[in-house]
Amino acid sequence: MARLRLFANLREIAGTSSVEVEGSTVGEVLASAIERFGEDFARALQPAQVWVDGERAKADAVVSSGSEVAAIPPVSGGAMLVRSPMAIEIGIVGVLTAALFGANAASLQWFAVTVVLVLGVWAYDVASAAERRDLDVAFFPGAAAALGGVLATYRYGALGMAAATIGAILLSLIWSVFQHRLRPVESVTAGASIALMSALSASSLVILRLRSRDETLVFLFVVTVAVFVSWLSDRSEMPIVDPLVAMLIGAIVGGAVAGAFWAPDLLVAIAGSVAAAIALVAGRNLGMLIRAGGFFASGHIPGSLSYLDGVVAAAGAYWALVTVLT
User: Fold this and answer.
1) What is the pLDDT of residues 236-274, one digit of tens each?
2) Which residue segments constitute the domains of the chain, with CATH numbers given?
3) CA triplet 253, 254, 257: central angle to 5 degrees?
4) pLDDT in tens, 2-20
5) Helices 307-325 & 185-211, crossing angle to 10 degrees?
6) SS3 string of the chain?
């Protein structure tokens, strides 16, 4: 007995998002579902792709008892979507977030080191997710951009941030020259986007920490609340609000709470959280494009650190607005 998860119009036709069905192969599982839900379901199933326990699978793929089979129709541009394991995903993000909180409390030096490590792991996760859909993306420029952003910003401030950002883009472009598999336009664009986001995020976080430990704490609290609330909504069978809306609400509420406790100016903290909320959604969408090749109305993005996509983008937005207002 396998668990079949249904998305988009398949879910609407079946009237449920998941169902237990018999079958020892993908083909048998889908045949059982068609028998249960009828011809409309069969027609909607034809263009869909199927994943078994997070891996794309064909009709003859073996399905073990207790496996999760996901049938995912094309959405916005024909790309596909799959959910990653719940406990693993939120667990890894939680560990990395806790490391940032701890390093922020310890010292600027430890915080800088932790930022480089977290962004390096994130860059690797994005590149790996993209490769699963046959898009070659190098993670090294993104990891190197994080290191360059931290070092340049620590030494030269905003000027170092600008230099690191330009250098990140140039490095990703130069890297593609020496790697034939990275020369397609989509690969170059994805690699440059990862490097740019990594450099900006690393630089913004270091400048925030140079300004104030409490301002950095407010930002970390804002994005933690936003990600957790969005994750809860995304995993709910009957969510009250869309996960992206939940992320927006969580960020703003988190900013108000954190600002009341730690920020020198509550209104500035709330304004910064609004900027971070918008960037969280934008970063999540950009990460979705790189990881899965399209935008999706529901479901989750491939990879273990997809929730960090928005956090990486939010750092720069939060720093920029807080700096302008103060």
Assistant:
1) 666 677 788 889 999 999 999 999 999 889 999 999 999
2) 2-72 (3.10.20.30), 86-325 (no CATH)
3) 90
4) 889 887 778 888 888 888 9
5) 50
6) CEEEEECHHHHHHHCCCEEEECCCEHHHHHHHHHHHHCHHHHHHHCCCEEEECCEEECCCCECCCCCEEEEECCECCCECCCCCCHHHHHHHHHHHHHHHHHHHHHCHHHHHHHHHHHHHHHHHHHHHHHHCCCCCCCCHHHHHHHHHHHHHHHHHCHHHHHHHHHHHHHHHHHHHHHCHHHCCHHHHHHHHHHHHHHHHHHHHHHHHHHHCHHHHHHHHHHHHHHHHHHHHHHHCCCCCCCHHHHHHHHHHHHHHHHHHHCCCCHHHHHHHHHHHHHHHHHHHHHHHHHHHCCCCCCCCCCCCCCHHHHHHHHHHHHHHHHHHHC
With contact defined as beta carbons under 8 Å apart, do 256 and 273 qualify? yes
pTM: 0.74
Find tokens 């883009």 and name the residue: 169
